[in-house]
Task: structure prediction
Amino acid sequence: MKIMTDDILSKSLLTREDLVYLLTTKEDKEKHALFRKAYQVKKQHCGNVVYLRGLIELSNICRKDCNYCGIRKSNDKVERYTLKDENVIDMAMYAWRRDFGSIVIQSGERTDKVFVDGLTNLIKTLREKTDNLLGITLSCGEQDMETYREWFDAGAHRYLLRVETTSEELFRKIHPDNEFHRFEDRFRALENLRKIGFQAGTGVMIGLPGQTVENLADDLLFFKSFDVDMIGMGPYIQHSDTPMGKWKAPLLKPAERLELSLRMIALARIMLKDVNIASSTALQALDPDGRIKAILAGANVFMPNMTPKIFADNYHLYEGKPAVRDNAAEIVKELELRLKGLGETIGYGKWGDSKHFFNRVIKN
Ligand code: SAM
Result:
């Protein structure tokens, strides 16, 4: 029997109304049709392969005070750390020896010279030690043009900066009102990353209190109009030591937030086709199988956490962050087995760059 989802998905461009329909339809048949289509688009445009990024949480020191984030500046319950260079090099070389192909270095937002120069040197060292063969993605927040350029010139080539939401009204609710948290600055930073030549990725949190499905439809339309190369988005999860963790506003149930996140991934895949989409860690906090479900909804990047447990325990952005095993190789083996059952392989030794980036650069 023909269903409405099939009609919508046969269109070449999805409207805001279409997206709202696909984000909210309750019919199982319609949901399955959406996920089936997204997975088919992933296989057609990105292949039967999932790429790895060993995730290194470089520092939990942050100058920002985002109302949702566990490592916000004002949370004085957090024991602050910055990994030593030798720790980062050990982790990156572990990823390298195991053929992960790439790492992601993520950090609280720091713009101090020690941090900026330290990261520049680390990127150079890691590239030298791996004959320029290890891919490096950064996710270290808003920086000025000079800093982005310095990190790019040092050898990082992909950057993930979530805009968190494209609704200015919602953005203002979930951030303090000061010069460190300006809606327009976040978008300007994303533009700057693109100008410098980074493969630029963005994303949003899904299931924020006060967020509507229309907001989420607008987020997807923004990804399309900005022509992003990569997407990293996931469910919002409360942290009790944050202002939003104490809000009384109604929140979708965990299963609903998971479902909505998977639909967002599926729709992003259908609309943007050849971009990289990460299966984010927060999905696993809601469901032990959340990251595999994301691959079946169209994600093609998996990020095993490499940060040793003693540090990762202090990089708590939200509650229920998956326990980090010291042995990322074990997680990858497990993933490999699961993927095999789906007819997927792991892109060992590959950077797994965004195909969209190259298509975009050639087009322009
Ligand atoms: N400081 C960098 C930045 O601002 O892009 C990167 C680190 S920041 C902790 C990484 C991401 O964590 C944010 O972009 C946000 O989307 C996510 N995050 C923070 N708190 C969260 C929460 N409570 N639930 C889900 N995701 C959260």
